[in-house]
Input
Amino acid sequence: MPQVDDARVLIDAALRDDAAVFQLTEDRAIVATVDFFAPIVDDPYAFGAIAAANALSDIYAMGATPLLALNLVAWPRDPALLELLGETLRGGSDVVGQAGAFLLGGHSIDDKEPKYGLVAVGEVHPEQVINNAGAQPGDMLVLTKPLGTGILSTAVKREMIPESDIRAAIISMSTLNAGAANAMRAVGTAVHAATDVTGFGLLGHLRNMLEASGVNARISAGSLPIFDGVRGLIVKDAVPGGTARNLEAAREYTEFIAGLEKTDQLLLADAQTSGGLLIAVTASHSQNLIAALQDNETPTASIIGEITHRGAGLIEVVA
Amino acid sequence: MPQVDDARVLIDAALRDDAAVFQLTEDRAIVATVDFFAPIVDDPYAFGAIAAANALSDIYAMGATPLLALNLVAWPRDPALLELLGETLRGGSDVVGQAGAFLLGGHSIDDKEPKYGLVAVGEVHPEQVINNAGAQPGDMLVLTKPLGTGILSTAVKREMIPESDIRAAIISMSTLNAGAANAMRAVGTAVHAATDVTGFGLLGHLRNMLEASGVNARISAGSLPIFDGVRGLIVKDAVPGGTARNLEAAREYTEFIAGLEKTDQLLLADAQTSGGLLIAVTASHSQNLIAALQDNETPTASIIGEITHRGAGLIEVVA
Output
């Protein structure tokens, strides 16, 4: 239940869901979200595209359709960097266009360190809102994009690998979760809960879903989709601060099977940017969902675990 | 006309209006805006309240009613400063509550320099949208809050005066433009255009209204509402960089009467935070609007000039 006591507020921050949902009429609710961050790749166009896909992801995670977006810009007043801003905005605008939404303005301020993001507003039928609170024992957990973007972008930042080595991750981060949302719609009410995987990592976002739903889960580390090269970079310590903090926090509610390597633990906690959707779906429809994801340009989706039983939101990670 | 070619987009960034307006149904449009900035006062609660009043102002300027808001936080990961963040969020939340809107979440990132702002979403009947493009020759121009907040907050930042000296400005900046919006509603279609006065100063925001409307205006410098002490601080050079840049830009389209002091010129260009509404209203209803503003807790409103004739957006400033 939202904390705000008004029947029009369908989703607020109380459930740590991805976006706010406010009912306007019997058959229409609006969904609003905002996200922004410092550049995570050097290519400014890619940064803009990633920021837009990331902001719009919260709309898709709720089962909603994006309508409009606003730019959010904090950028140095330096002519050389303003050219990069132009490319960043072009990347953002192109992805908003791919979503079928309209970029209708925004706000910019001077800042020493550049940052970019977007406000996104979408709409959804109030009865078709997918929140993170409906996962049921027996549900399968599906993740739609590979993990490891935090580690890969940290490795590039530390000049351990060139940016050209993480092309697959850049394309993935720039890709809208629109296909995943279409696939969820295709299986209808068999989808019980969804969220997108971003800064808190897979374990953090799964935890929010489990707590909101009052259930526990088991994840199979061996089934996780992972970008090439990520494991080797973890061994070389290309671990972002957020990922290490996520793992510390996750130890409170996660039981790792004895012998599970630290590499796997960090991967499960890796802070993602523009990650995939994490979807709880009835076991009987899980293969339908995987097929629908493949039909909707999301071939990387995998079943990564299941909801085991009612509980306080604990996670068990097996090999 | 918006640049975006879709009948549902009623207002986009093309007219440099305050917020985007998107039509959902025959009788409902949503209005979305975002605004954020670094602290302009030391008192963290006041900063939060000002940021919220400022963000919601764009909703009121369009004739809309606020529905929901999201926090936007960029803050250092420093425990001492996190306490200040708590107070800032409390100030923002209280003002969102005063607006009858719901604070439903947000996004925060680590940043060296603190910044706070909000996304605001409102609704309006599509036929009751007040934009900045409808000003007509003969209209009177009404400004609802005094000018000088940029100069006053700069003087405090430079320790020329204590923050306790600018209490009136802090209260004004923390005050919603809700009363002004109610007053506009009370005079109905006699209001031809409105915008809020913020970072581009009175001249910059007036210029946007004039260009969008295809008209010229005359402003009477002697009629401007001004906070106490501002003129003296301009003389002592308490002029923010944005105000000086605004004046440079304004010289392109503004003719100051011979002998008008630089003090007055800077005041007209002063970058405001959470400034008042600038309203173009038929001459025959201008006194009704002033009376309605007084009835709606906006006693500082004054007639400051008029729309003179069709034109390219030029401003004449007389004494």
Remarks:
- The two ends of chain A are 35 Å apart (CA to CA).
- The mean pLDDT of chain A is 95.
